[in-house]
Amino acid sequence: MAWFESLGMALIDVLIAGLMLIVGLFPEALSAPFDYAFMQRALLTSILVGAICGLLSCFVVLKRWSLLGDAISHAVLPGVAIAYLLGWPFFIGAFLAGAVSALGIGALERHTRIKSDAAMGLMFTFAFALGVVIIGKIATNTHLMHILFGNVLGVQYPALMLTLFSGVVALVAVWVFYRSLVLYTFDPMQAQALGFNTSVVHYGLILLLTLTIVASLETVGIILVVAMLITPGATAHLLTDRLTTMMLLSVGTGILSAVLGLYLSFLFDVASGGAIVLVATALFAVALLAAPRHGLVGRWWRRRRGAAAMVP
Amino acid sequence: MSEVVHQSLPAVEVRHVYAAYDGQAVLEDVHIDLPAGEWTAIIGPNGAGKSTLFRILLGVMKAQRGQVQVLGQEPSAQRRAGVMAYMAQQEAVEWDFPISVRDTVLTGRYGHMRGDAFWRRIVPPRWCDPRHWAVVRQALKAVDMQDYADRPIGALSGGQKKRVLLARALAQEARVLLLDEPLAGVDTASERLIMKVLDGERRSGRTVIMVTHDMDSARRYADKVLLLNRQVVGMGAPERMLVDEMLARTAAAGWVRDHEPLVEAS
Ligand SMILES: Nc1ncnc2c1ncn2[C@@H]1O[C@H](COP(=O)(O)OP(=O)(O)OP(=O)(O)O)[C@@H](O)[C@H]1O
Ligand SMILES: [Mg+2]
């Protein structure tokens, strides 16, 4: 494992050096905060988290899985707590807890008459309550706050490595299984009729979602990660009618929100997770107003022109 | 000319099939052959189990008892092999999905793309083997939707969507077409178009199996009619199945079994 770790560290250092070259192109006033090593790590983490969340958020939005994302992210909490108790790395506990609760939700909705939204609400509030109780016993409030709301300025190498690893896995998975994912999201029945194994695709996508959530924990925290899994995809969905374009736009807005949010949080000394999500929402608002086909202004304009054309 | 199709092997063999949902019997002892290279219309009242039979033929639902073979093989294997194309009665399609009409039809080729060169399988589908695009163009032309190819799928009317889904089924170039009420919610012009397309498919040797409530089109186009309501009521030429007595028997067959199924030799 040691070579793996040093390889990861070296890769991170290379990436950071590359980023600093780009940051150096900006005027001094903008680039000054990134003289600090912790800001450099935070920048790389933010970019990675923005990109992974942006990518996955396309599927979350199109598959109407927003609530599921919310459920998994909350269900991660007891996993973090139990891992802490057992002395495991936190992400293993988080990943297991997220996966188990996603399976539990699936089992509840398949084998009982409970509807999926109730199944999710039930599972995630239970898991979250369990997490709050355990953490209350073993850790301080600041610790809890960091898990809940993230602390990107305090990111260290191990967390950065996890984020990088998750990013690579998510990218490769979406790339390799693009067709299955598209077909399963667009028309699950057709996917089945064409001989795709839809259960594998379904649970694979859930695991990918869980991985993304775990990777984003330290940056935006449990409560706000779901915003990064919804907002970039929703923004991009307003802007285009092509999936590949939507993915690029979504990754772009994800990265832009994360970087801008990080910068603003440093500048005004506010919580980074909150700042990132606020920027993402602001971008969404701009798209909602100004999107060419699906934007409110465009629609209003077309309606007015249409009404004018109808009057002789 | 279309008589060259060998009549010996049935396309679909249903052997004493029982099916149920939560213990509620839906199909009871359904035992029938559907001929290859012919057009069979399946007719029966709402809740007769027609869509259920399709689910069993596709292998996405298991029969409680009995067996089904499609062209001599297990349904689920044939499904993977791309032998069957299926048009569902109630689509599970996400119409807001950002995909064009052309790319929607291309998804019908995703099964065949498993046979593409490796590098084509790891790049976005739009760079797939050009022969897939040729099939897509042809399918769009067949349903007269080529002018809409660049439209987002959500920006079509209900009947146009149906035609695109038919094009997607055609693009699969499957030997057996399973169509669950392809005419529901379609105007007469589109209906005629769809029937013409299916007739062309049948003439080129494909097996067409269609559920419909439209007796007129069944009478006009189908080679065989299968009357189904929980059990097989009859199977044979349209002019002998679509008569008042047989239709009355079909309506009653959901509750009672007072006649042996009337199955004509093909
Ligand atoms: N998913 C399901 N769960 C429980 N029962 C079902 C399910 N699907 C169908 N059924 C029942 O099985 C019976 C047959 O349904 P099926 O959909 O096969 O009928 P159908 O012949 O296709 O009818 P229609 O003409 O209305 O489409 C019906 O009584 C229906 O209530
Ligand atoms: Mg039906």
UniProtKB/TrEMBL annotation, chain A:
GO biological process assignments: cellular response to iron ion; iron ion transport; response to zinc ion; transmembrane transport
CDD domains, A to Z: TM_ABC_iron-siderophores_like
Domain of life, source organism: Bacteria
Bilayer topology: Multi-pass membrane protein
InterPro entries: ABC_BtuC-like, ABC_TroCD
Main location: membrane
Subcellular localization, as worded in the UniProt entry: Cell membrane; Membrane
KW Iron (keyword) present: yes
Keywords for this protein: Ion transport, Iron, Iron transport, Membrane, Transmembrane, Transmembrane helix, Transport
GO cellular component: ATP-binding cassette (ABC) transporter complex
Transmembrane region(s): 6-30, 42-62, 82-108, 120-139, 159-181, 193-214, 220-239, 246-268, 274-296
Keyword field contains Manganese: no
PANTHER family from the UniProt entry: ABC-TRANSPORTER METAL-BINDING PROTEIN (PTHR30477), IRON TRANSPORT SYSTEM MEMBRANE PROTEIN HI_0360-RELATED (PTHR30477:SF13)
Name the record gives this protein: Membrane protein
Organism: Ectothiorhodospira haloalkaliphila
From TrEMBL, chain B:
SUPFAM superfamilies hit by this protein: P-loop containing nucleoside triphosphate hydrolases
Coiled-coil spans in chain: none
SMART domains, per database record: AAA (SM00382)
MF annotations from Gene Ontology: ATP binding; ATP hydrolysis activity
InterPro entries reported for this sequence: AAA+_ATPase, ABC_transporter-like_ATP-bd, ABC_transporter-like_CS, Metal_Ion_Import_ABC, P-loop_NTPase
Alphabetically ordered keywords of this record: ATP-binding, Nucleotide-binding, Transport
KW Thylakoid (keyword) present: no
Keyword ATP-binding: yes
Residue ranges annotated for the ABC transporter domain, each copy included: 12-255
Pfam family, one: ABC_tran
Recorded superkingdom: Bacteria
Family that this chain belongs to: Belongs to the ABC transporter superfamily.
Name of protein: ABC transporter
Originating species: Ectothiorhodospira haloalkaliphila
